[in-house]
Specification:
Blueprint lengths: L2 H22 L4 H6 L1 H11 L14 E4 L5 H10 L39 H16 L5 E6 L6 H12 L5 E7 L2 E2 L2 E2 H5 L4 H7 L3 E6 L3 H13 L5 E6 L22 H11 L2
Parallel strand pairs: 1-2, 2-3, 3-7, 6-7
Antiparallel strand pairs: 4-5
Helix pairs in contact: 1-3, 1-4, 1-10, 3-4, 3-9, 5-6
């Protein structure tokens, strides 16, 4: 897929993110907007998921370990045609399948129910280990937040992934530097993230998380690595694309009002 096409998808996904959160009057826009290029790269250039194989065991898997950024995940699934775009309007509503954290029992394209930080990457390790034990060729992708790295369970999973040489596992860290209480390094400093993953035995790359070419190249390099799990540390901007949300911790879990929504959509363009 051409970069211009990916950029067009990303713009539409961002518009749906802010509309979805505004419609629900709750949700997590900041970390959703920062992860758009990462998720678009995974779903449109890497994963083999489609409506034809969505219910099959014979496909790649994705785990949203930072499970609160469902506005981004659902918007990407809608962009991919895996859920109806109209369904985004039901986000966080009573009896909706699109709850604030993903539920694999409600949405076929959701591969793991997540929300408690650290548990998603652990599940992804289990999936990759299962593939290895059964000789299956499929990849497992996972997306973590940098604040999530403060959870000890993340590093237990990282240790296990390296111990079992899970080279079918490709994790991304959305490194936007902010979490709900402020700067990640002030709350509980997880840096240097790259050196920590290297010490745990992972193949590590650091890229611009809003650069499609860099993300795609990093994915291809990661898939060529044998005997090691891979992580791509993607440097991003929280709230990317909406000026008043960018690099502002308060937009971690705050919904825009009608005036702010109008400004956001005007900035994002058609």
């Amino acid at each position: 897929m051409e970069i211009k096409e990916l950029q067009a998808h990303a713009k539409h996904i961002r518009r749906n993110i802010v509309k979805t959160v505004a419609g629900a009057k709750s949700g997590h826009p900041g970390g959703s907007l920062s992860a758009v290029e990462i998720l678009t790269t995974i779903y449109f250039t890497q994963m083999d998921i489609s409506n034809e194989n969505v219910n099959s065991l014979e496909r790649d898997r994705f785990v949203l370990s930072k499970g609160h950024v469902t506005p981004a995940l659902y918007a990407v699934l809608a962009e991919k045609g895996l859920i109806p775009e109209k369904e985004l309007e039901t986000f966080r509503k009573i009896n909706s399948d699109l709850q604030g954290h993903p539920n694999m029992n409600d949405v076929a394209a959701v591969d793991m129910s997540t929300g408690s930080l650290g548990q998603g990457i652990s599940a992804a390790v289990g999936m990759a280990l299962s593939n290895k034990l059964h000789g299956l060729p499929y990849h497992v992708y996972a997306l973590l937040g940098d604040g999530e790295l403060q959870e000890g369970q993340v590093w237990e999973a990282a240790m296990a992934a390296a111990h079992y040489h899970l080279d079918q596992l490709l994790a991304f860290v959305d490194h936007n530097g902010l979490q709900i209480d402020g700067k990640v390094v002030d709350v509980m400093n997880p840096t240097p993230i790259d050196e920590k993953f290297k010490a745990f035995g992972w193949h590590v790359q650091v890229v611009d998380g809003h650069d499609f070419e860099a993300l795609i190249e990093a994915c291809e390099k990661a898939k060529a690595v044998k005997g090691q799990p891979s992580v791509i540390i993607a440097k991003t901007i929280k709230g990317k694309g909406v000026s008043f949300m960018e690099n502002q911790a308060k937009w971690h879990g705050t919904a825009p009002n009608e005036e702010q929504l109008a400004q956001a959509l005007a900035e994002l363009g058609e």
